[in-house]
Fold this protein.
Amino acid sequence: NYTVDAEGTVVVKITVDPKGNVVDAEFGQGTNTGNTALRQEALKAARSTKFNAINGTNPQQGTITYKFNLN
């Protein structure tokens, strides 16, 4: 539940270690809201995401897109 009266898209660029943990998260291209609360919630969610472990030693990079809509 969010108590923010705002909507928008937040794109988070992530780096994931071979164990599936997000080790870096920052705002990515495509973010269209300057709302601090939405941006911080997206970063918090991205950092707590867990992915499947992989064989290898190289971290993987990608993005997660969060769309916040008012209902």
